[in-house]
Design a protein that fits this description.
This protein is of the alpha+beta class and 109 residues long. It has helices spanning 3-18, 64-77; strands at 30-38, 45-46, 49-50, 87-96, 102-108.
Length: 109
């Protein structure tokens, strides 16, 4: 993940999270689950659609730790979460998207 793409992710997360932001920042221990769905490269497709050999899991860049950091930075940046040190459990998955790319976020406190 480059700084430019990290800022793009942060902006998208911030935009989506603002609609669900609590009145005051979360200030207690929290668990964070992230499901990333990333775009497939053109090589995964043939004229007939998705190749049978196309992988489900995304094992290239960006790394899961960089993706998670971008989400955490965005949640802190908009005042959803007081500090990312409050996250005691972090679960991150990274797959290829079957539909539009994006990230599903669940913060439990």
């Amino acid at each position: 993940m480059t700084p430019a793409t990290a800022e793009g992710w942060k902006g998208q997360v911030a935009l989506a999270a603002k609609a669900h932001r609590p009145a005051t920042p979360v200030c207690t221990a929290a668990a964070l689950w992230l499901w990333f769905h990333l775009s497939r490269p053109q090589a995964h497709f043939s004229r007939g659609g998705l190749r049978s050999t196309a992988p489900s899991f995304h094992t290239g860049k960006p790394d899961v730790d960089n993706l998670a950091k971008a989400v955490l930075d965005a949640l802190v940046g908009i005042g959803f979460l007081r500090d990312d040190r409050l996250v005691w459990s972090l679960r991150v998955t990274k797959r290829y998207a079957d539909g539009p790319p994006g990230c599903r976020v669940r913060l439990v406190w």
